[in-house]
Predict the structure.
Amino acid sequence: MRRVRLWGWLAALAALLAGCGTSLGERCGRDSDCASGFICARPVRDEGPAASGVCDYPLRERDEPCTVAAECAQSLTCSNHFAEGDRYGTCVPRREDGSTCFADRDCESEHCEGASGTALDGTCAP
């Protein structure tokens, strides 16, 4: 009886592990290759997404916490760019032309003119 339970438990464990998918930072070709909770982040080139990427956390949506702009969805940036010394922020919409910015990623136009990269001293420009 014990042997049957042990083999049943081992078979269930093997089936569970087989369905886990690829771990964080490992190569993938599509989201389904990655373990639950991860996506296949593939670099985007002029001709479209690359054929392979790495398993990563999904991008965060508006009002979700962030520490860097790259954690936010493409149309968003991290609010910590706009408060000196603020390490944590939330994903917020990119800024309009004429607004202050820290980096290109902060602007709708993707152009932060005059930014030093160390302070909120740039201006979003067309």
